[in-house]
Design brief:
By secondary structure, the chain is an alpha/beta fold. The chain has 2 domains: 372 residues, Rossmann fold, CATH 3.40.50.12780; 94 residues, ANL, C-terminal domain (GMP Synthetase, Chain A, domain 3, 2-Layer Sandwich), CATH 3.30.300. Helix content is 30%, strand content 22%. The protein has 13 helices and 20 strands. A hairpin with a 5-residue loop joins strand 15 and strand 16. About 5% of the residues have low confidence.
Length: 475
Amino acid sequence: MNAAILARLLWKRRELHQHDRWTRRQLETYQARMLQQLRQHAYAHSPFYQRYHRGLEHAPLHELPVLTKATLMEHFDDLVTDRQIRRTAVEAHLQRDLRHERYLGRYWLNATSGSTGRPGLFLFDAAEWATIMASYARASDWTGLQTGLRYRRKFAVVSSTTEWHQSAAVGATIQSPWLPTLRIDSGEPLAAIVAQLNRWQPEMLTAYASMAHLLAEEQLAGRLQITPTAVTTASEVLTSAMRQRIEQAWGKTLFNVYAATETAGIASECDHHSGLHLGMDIPTPGRGRNIASECDHHSGLHLCEDLIIAEAVDAANQPVSAAVYADKLLVTVLFSRTMPLIRYEMSDSIKLADAGCPCAMPYKLVAGIQGRVEEILHLSNTSGERVPVQPIVFHRIMEAVAAAEWQIVQTADGLEVLIAGARDGFSADALAGGLQRELGSQGVAGLPIQVVQVAAIPRSAIGKAPLIRANRERR
């Protein structure tokens, strides 16, 4: 790892650890100061924000216009704060070998896969990149697994190895003898993944939720034989059935992480057994609360509110109450400078908790994540009207299915339900009947449903296997 980046990472990781011991008032004071600095930087260096927020320079955050990915990409050259950055040049750079070259010699480049319909390009300077790495390190810290200069742990990451994907880029940056890591592309054959993990014997396993579920099935079948101290899942919806099987395979070592390319770590679960040991030889301050000794892990995911301001809103961008699933999430990334993101729209549907975590960390909790707005299926009811069916409606039925993996695909005529790794007791007719009844409770009746058993659920270019795929043309 580059010495300068390592130094920045160590410093930022120490700073985030100190934030965990703040009071809520200290956190809110910090948020206000960082938001002011972000806006001042954007107004001084971004022609786009000079126009977009004209007359609103002193308005409160909730009165500012929402920034969509489409708007960001349309005004890319004016939104960035470095006048040398040009979208066409960034796109050309993306087509080249990124392993050994930063854009303009100083920017890390990530791209979204376009799962929401619009690919996005995101640039980060050295300070921003160190913060991104520290946000992921924090998720590891909250599991209680000590890592760092004195704690040489073996990691395994089963996700994307595509160079423009953030997880792959972070992994390439932190290559270090202190953090030996096996990186496996989730698109590889399952047997090959299992063989590599058996040889490596990781102490920490990180994977897409669907892949962690598959690996848990392999562990329970005896083909995979590893004993990780902690398992983290990310990038996909983690259902209660997935969690149950993963914990059945490895015990209560599972921690869910909520992250995105634009923001890096958004929220993570914590462990009350750990004492929040900080790796990389960061000493625990002599004063302050012992955060993790009290913490009831898995009561929710702590929002990283010292890095982002998160607004759970409805379709009209109005705030929703706690314990209610929002239509989308608006994020303001407090550390973004190269590409300031202020009230940036994400299509994730989350639910905030109406209470905090017993650990007393100052951050709000995310009580549930049910997927993206793009996973809402719009189906015809008995009156011929199109009605939205939320992902959780399908989860209620599918989580009880005796199978390793499933995926619901909206077709031109109805629904196709893909099933992989069916276990004893699986019945295609019973599944179709259960879905028909559940959809009937939503006013959708007579929808053709075809259940198909497949060898494996198809994955995207970066190895994800979404649980629900909407038919964009029909929508």
